[in-house]
Amino acid sequence: MNTRNATVSVVALCIALMLSTGGVFAADVAKIGILDAQRILDISSAGKAAQARIKAEGTQRTEDLKKKAEEFKTLEEQLKREAMVMSQEKRDDKSRELKIRKVEIEDLQKKYSREMSQMQQELLSRIQADIVKLAQKIGKEDGYLLILTKENAVYYPSSIDVTDKLIQSYNAQFAKGQTEASKNK
């Protein structure tokens, strides 16, 4: 009977301990946040500025390629018109020049494509790094246990979405950076 009383006492003590510590664990409610990185990119001032820069650079490169393609087309038409009156040697020289120009245009197109991809990657990486820093700052300041991206969550209520708060902070940070940058000019 003594072992039975001892077992009952140990079980009762364990239950008492669990009940008494339940309040401590209940006080530490896990605060979790979700952010939508794509929405931050689309709506934030920094995201819009990056997209505008990418678009402007892309437009400039596209115009340059169009100009070179038009020059090529003009030379090609000129060769077709004048081919009958040109010597064979002159025709061969013009044909060679056209082939070289065509390869140059194709190489330039590849170069521009690489440059645009690199620029886009650099700008987006910079924005992503800024978002991570801001999320960490907000997480620490507001007592979040965890902040995840929307892509990593299957379900979440909109009440834990911190995207708007991040956008506000990021816009303020971007505006401050723009102001400091214009002062340094």
In brief, what are we looking at here?
The chain is mainly alpha-helical and 185 residues long. The protein is 79% helix and 4% strand.
Write the layout of secondary structure elements.
Elements: H1 2-27, E1 32-35, H2 37-43, H3 45-82, H4 88-142, E2 146-149, H5 163-183
Observed structural traits:
about 180 residues, mainly alpha, Protein Binding, DinI Protein, Chain A, about 5% strand, 5 helices, rod-shaped, two-stranded parallel sheet
Can you describe what's shown?
By secondary structure, the protein is mainly α. It has a single domain, classed as 2-Layer Sandwich (Protein Binding, DinI Protein, Chain A), CATH 3.30.910. It contains five helices and two strands, in the order αβαααβα. The chain has a two-stranded parallel ribbon. Helix 2 crosses helix 5. The termini are far apart. The relative contact order is 0.15. About 12% of the residues have low confidence.
